[in-house]
Each structure stands twice: as structure tokens, then as C-alpha cells.
Design brief:
Belongs to the MurB family. Residues 55-221 form the FAD-binding PCMH-type domain. α2 (131-141) runs antiparallel to α6. A 6-stranded antiparallel sheet has the order 1-8-9-14-12-13. The protein has a 5-stranded mixed sheet with strand order 2-3-4-7-5, covered by helices on one side. It has a 3-stranded antiparallel sheet with strand order 15-16-17, covered by helices on one side. With 332 residues, it is of the alpha+beta class. It has 3 domains: 32-107, Uridine Diphospho-n-acetylenolpyruvylglucosamine Reductase, domain 2, CATH 3.30.43.10; 114-239, 2-Layer Sandwich (Uridine Diphospho-n-acetylenolpyruvylglucosamine Reductase, domain 3), CATH 3.30.465.10; 243-325, Uridine Diphospho-n-acetylenolpyruvylglucosamine Reductase, domain 1, CATH 3.90.78.10. It has helices at 68-80, 131-141, 156-162, 171-174, 192-195, 224-241, 261-267, 296-314, and strands at 2-3, 30-33, 40-46, 58-63, 85-88, 94-96, 101-107, 114-117, 122-126, 165-166, 169-170, 175-181, 187-190, 210-217, 274-275, 278-280, 288-290, 323-325. It binds flavin-adenine dinucleotide (FAD). Flavin-adenine dinucleotide (FAD) binds at residues 52, 87-94, 108, 127, 151-155, 157-159, 161-162, 164-166, 200, 204-205, 210-211, 244, 248-250, 323.
Amino acid sequence: MITSQGFGKICEFSNFTPQLQTENDVDNSKLIYLPGTNCPLKTHTSLSAFTSYRVGGEAEHYVSPYDLEALQVSIEYAKENNLAITVLGAGSNLLVSDRGIPGLVIATRHLRSKNFNPATGQLTVSAGEPIPTLAWDAAALGWEGLEWAVGIPGTVGGAVVMNAGAHSSCIADMLVSAQVLSPDGTLVTLTPEELGYTYRSSQLQGGKRIVTQATFQLQPGADPVQVTARTKEHKKHRLSTQPYSYPSCGSVFRNPKPYTAGWLIEQTGLKGYQLGGAQVAQLHANFIVNRGGAKASDIFSLIRHVQNEVQERWSIWLEPEVKMLGEFQAGC
Ligand SMILES: Cc1cc2nc3c(=O)[nH]c(=O)nc-3n(C[C@H](O)[C@H](O)[C@H](O)COP(=O)(O)OP(=O)(O)OC[C@H]3O[C@@H](n4cnc5c(N)ncnc54)[C@H](O)[C@@H]3O)c2cc1C
């Protein structure tokens, strides 16, 4: 059995170095520790560093627990202080409003542990583990099944919630079970059937439950060189077809079958169209990139513009895949 850390011991507090922000700290930010833990909770924390778009205002309160206990204390703290909870993974599918997010933002990125079990071929991982690292780790062990996921820059939790997918595979195909924390503090283990998976969607979306851990079924016993080569191929393909050099959230819109959103946007003549610092990518029209200095409102206005133009030309309303957090207003 290959284990990095058992869940519940993810945060060894003796080694604990709070990852506090530097570039985005503001003067009025304040740090306290969650009651009974060494887990820092900050106020007025800019979220732009915690989203792949590199935009967004402040979290009224922000915490990134290193273990399950601190996560549970965070939820208690929110309850006691009447704070709404918003969950963040790696922030790679999010557009956070320039006005920020009221209440308590809980980032799960520091919940780390992974366990490759050769007897079952199952990989059990904490919610904060980055998906690309898992793909490389599995490949290096000669475990097949995660090659497709190498280009998805999110966490396990975000991928389970979003039913992330690529190259005709998705999380639902390989998930054995997900461990989920309910608002009342109880841990429940759910099967893919119970999560109601459909294309880039699950019943965990918009809900109050927090994914803490997931178990995936992989296929051990392959040649690590070959699995790594396939993983590299997937990465290479994505780098050549998607704009990774500017901040983005990946695909902005869901594909309205039988079309792809990218094709519809391209055929509407919107490739390269720019509003403020936000641009419809030249390389892939379903990406909106931050060309530098974009505000969340630029990206939001461009999303609306694309939706309106595509609606007018094709009578199809593109549904966003990106999750928008906080307040947005058309034209702001
Ligand atoms: C360059 C690029 C390429 C991308 N390519 C793909 C792709 O090929 N396929 C694909 O599917 N996606 C892709 N994405 C989008 C994104 O990476 C995925 O949706 C990913 O699964 C999001 O994970 P995250 O940890 O960043 O979640 P976040 O963006 O932080 O959150 C997404 C949603 O999940 C919720 N959430 C996150 N973690 C938890 C948790 N532990 N418990 C409960 N709720 C939680 C959030 O509240 C939010 O509603 C891409 C993004 C980028 C920037």
C-alpha cells in the first residue's frame, strides 16, 4: 500500500506554515485562529490569487483548513457567527465578483493525502489534491485511468463536484465513492449513482455539502513508461489546442449538443473579441482569457455579449459551465 498521509493527519501542526497571502493582502485584513486549532482565519482576503482567472474581490472571511477537524470547526464557526459558507477548490472553474464574497470562504486546497492501494487498484485521495499531480503519480506507478485528467488544473473536490472530464472520459466513469461533509457536521459516503452525475454536473453543485475525500478505480499493472507517454500526449495535445498562457477558467460554456460552444462562438465571428481585459481566445473560442488587468465585470460582460450574439445568430442560449460567485450585474 502506498500512502502519503492518513486523512485526519493531513495537517501536522508542528510543520504547519500558514500560507498567507502577500501580494494581495490589504491593510484592513485581520488574522485570528479558529477556536481550538492552529488554523488561521483571515478577514478581507483578496480571492484573485486563489482563482485561475486572477480576478475577484475579497472574501469577508477566508479559511483553508489543513485537516478534517479544522474543516468541521470552520463550519461550526460559520454557524455560530451566522456566516454563509462558500467552498473553493483550486478556483479553476470560478468567476468571483469584483465585489467579493460575503460570509466565510472555505478553501479545501490544503486537505491533502493520497493512498494508492495495489490490492484493489483504488486511489483514495483528499479533496485538496491537485488532479494533474495525481495523473502524473498514477502514470509513474503504471496505473491506467487518469491519463485524460492531466490538463485539468483543479482539485479532487472540484472535479467530483463538476464531474470534470476530457478526451471522452470523466470523473463519474471512475469514481467509486465520495466522502462528503453535511452542514450538520456528519460525514457521509456517497456512490456515483447517489450523486446524480450528468455532463459536467452533479447534485453536489450549488449545495451545502463539502467533498472531503474520493476513491477512484484505476487499473494497476501497466508499463509506467507507456502510461506516462500517453499522459504526456494528452498534455501536449491540450497545450497545442487550448490557451494555457493566459489566465482562464477553461471552457466557459457547456456544449449544447449536437454543437460545441466553441464552434458556435467561432461561427458567430467572436474569436478575438475583447472587452476591457477579457478576450474570446484566438486559439479556442470557448475560452475567455484575461489578457492582463481584466476585472471580473469585464469577463462577465463578455460572457453576456457572447450569449446574446450566439442567441441572435443561432437561437441557442449558451449555459455557462463556469460558476459565478458573488454579485454580478449586466453592464457593470
Ligand atoms: C486551463 C483550464 C483548462 C480546463 N480544462 C478542463 C477540462 O478539460 N475539463 C473540465 O471538466 N474542466 C476543465 N477546467 C475547469 C476546472 O479545472 C474544472 O471544473 C475543475 O474540476 C474545477 O476544480 P477546482 O478545484 O478548481 O474547483 P473550483 O473552481 O474551486 O470550484 C468549482 C465548483 O466546485 C465547488 N467545490 C470545489 N471544491 C469543493 C469541495 N471540496 N466540496 C464541495 N464543493 C466544492 C465550488 O464551490 C464550485 O461550485 C479547466 C480549467 C482551466 C483553467
